[in-house]
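S1.2 Input.
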Amino acid sequence: MRSRSALVLALVGTLALGLVAFAAERPTLTTQDFTYDFERSEVDFKNDIAHFFGHVRVTQGTNSIEAQQAVARAFRSENKQWEFRDAVLVKTAEAELTAQSATAAFENNVLVQARVEGSPAHFERRADGSERLARGRARSIEYDVVREVVTLSGDVWFGYGSDEFRGDTVVYDLRDERVRVDARDTGRVRGVIRPRGDEQTGAERQGTSAEGGTAVLTDDVVSEGEA
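S1.3 Output.
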């Protein structure tokens, strides 16, 4: 009986530690007030849809979205979706996106995901304390704010510092500084890795920056810095 109780306690302890570790890995989302301002609005209370016009700005902590027009569906709900049009600018503490249009999903009034589209749409991020600038352009860009992952799709150009990649899809993990480039329909990925100074380190020759970022190229190319 004692051994069974000890086993149960051990299992409970292991589960508790696992839950604590899982919680520690999950990013902490802001709980600051969700605010918005605009010049003119039309609200359909029956269908819970709001239209905003004229320098629309949605803000929560360091996160903000600006546009000339916006539509909010499930407007009074904590889980809502906004659509933005014309001169769209999405900003977080980690990244900045510009485009012609965007959709943004909010859960519990917190921005969790944004998708922007343009011809092209643009993405930019500067790492803290680093001169290396990650930036890119594509027909559409999805930004998972919770996972801190940016996915660029359609005629993609992506740059990290002085290095450049072209493909159909680029997935950039902001947290781990890891880049995956996929050719898909085009069948080829084009990459340019430029020397930094007179001598290249082995890491740079393999597509891995001295700061620890990694590029993994796929589809009919030699992988660079493959894990």
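S1.4 Remarks. Residues 6-28, 198-214, 217-227 have pLDDT under 50 and may be disordered.
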